[in-house]
Design goal:
Helices cover 28% and strands 40% of the residues. Strands 1, 2, 6, 7 and 8 form a 5-stranded antiparallel sheet that branches. A hairpin with a 2-residue loop joins strand 7 and strand 8. Helix 1 packs parallel to helix 2. The longest helix has 19 residues.
Length: 140
């Protein structure tokens, strides 16, 4: 099972993320976003950034985590090159996350697509025989 893969979309970019549970699904979706933004394997991280999010549904929790990666890029001039969910509290739908980052100036030769936003378009987390799956569309 691939953790994520880019899929065809008419106007924007989209990917399908998979995981055995919600924590792994969110983590793989974050890593999928990063794979669209930067050649992460070509750079060395300089530091870790931690953040926490919470929501009232699994889909909203996913959509609370992913924009944090875009925020680092747009507002902090940091390019995320790896992402992890260190803790997931399903009873309150809260995620504690970490992102390995590099300053944008150091990552510039390896930047790929500029993602503007994560959309709600056609977002559903579905159970499959192998775990959870979500299709996520990005505005570029």
């Amino acid at each position: 099972m691939k953790p994520f893969e880019q899929v065809e979309h008419t106007a924007d970019y989209a990917l399908v993320a998979r995981g055995k549970d919600l924590r792994e699904l969110i983590q793989n979706a974050g890593r999928g976003v990063i794979s669209l933004m930067v050649e992460a394997e070509a750079v060395t991280t300089t530091r870790q950034v931690e953040f926490a999010t919470e929501a009232d549904s699994p889909e909203r929790l996913l959509l609370q985590c992913l924009p944090e990666l875009l925020y680092l890029y747009e507002d902090e001039d940091l390019v995320p090159v790896d992402f992890g969910v260190t803790q997931l509290y399903q009873d309150v739908l809260q995620a504690e996350c970490t992102a390995a980052v590099i300053p944008i100036d150091q990552a510039r030769p390896h930047l790929l697509v500029g993602i503007k936003a994560v959309t709600y378009h056609d977002l559903h987390i579905v159970a499959t025989p192998r775990g959870l799956e979500a299709r996520i569309v990005f505005d570029v």
